Amino acid sequence: xxxxxxxxxxxxxxxxxxxxxxxxxxxxxxxxxxxxxxxxxxxxxxxxxxxxxxxxxxxxxxxxxxxxxxxxxxxxxxxxxxxxxxxxxxxxxxxxxxxxxxxxxxxxxxxxxxxxxxxxxxxxxxxxxxxxxxxxxxxxxxxxxxxxxxxxxxxx
Length: 156
What we know:
Elements lengths: L5 E2 L4 H8 L1 H4 L12 E8 L2 E8 L4 E5 L7 H19 L8 E3 L12 H14 L10 H14 L6
Parallel strand pairs: 1-2, 4-5
Antiparallel strand pairs: 2-3, 3-4
């Protein structure tokens, strides 16, 4: 069984996609391959989406609340995983990856993508289905705000 999950910060993917692996190779000294899931927040052109590498199933997921497919994400992350694996273990990664862009709840405006990403991550990490819609986002936004205000120490 794999240990817990590991979340990269919001600058990671954009930096990787624009600057390349060699510029970020020491970004994380953690052995990401020991985790069950790698959580990757993505911001491209002002829009938030979420990437998840599920090491236990060999699947890379891309969750987007406006349901656009992002094939470049799969290419960039697969290349990162292969190079990171070689750097970590000194051998070529033999596994292949499945790619999945599942149908997820969709936003009905141009401003809630970040809140949807937070909700996607919460559901994934809690192991619960995506049983929410745009109408639930106002309450979820309030819940996030209250968590930030009432638990400031956990957000560092």
